[in-house]
Protein: Transposase family protein
Organism: Streptantibioticus ferralitis
Amino acid sequence: MLVAPSSLISPASSAAPSLTSALPPRPVVPEGLLGRLAQVPDPRDPRGVRYRLATLLAIGVCALTSAGHNSLAAVAEWARRLGPAELQRLGCPFNPITGRYRVPDEGTLREAYAKVDPAALTAAGYERLAPWLVLAFLPAGPIRRTGRRDGSLESSW
């Protein structure tokens, strides 16, 4: 038994514009430092984790690229001197009670860095650079190899 629709308005007709076609295309946002470092697996016990591993690694990367911050004590000091906007961009958690972003101390950084797999960290960091590195070291022309009398090879570009 068929029942007549209760509404006098016809269901979606072909004349109605599609909702997805009316929206403008979203711009593609390139992955940043946190996105790359989030690919590194977190070896820490999930109980008691206060900072994401990507946040701790990003603090280390940013501090080590600035002049004079070559120890964990200097990295922690650098992080303590950051403003709220920088701490937010690095992914530090916000404490609503104090109204401030929490900053990891030297011990937290030391424990996290000691447990990170160096191969996974390297893979996450160099994954974006890999295509450029290959192109940078390719010769402009063919490689010619000539044999020497002593049996070694000499390459010329």
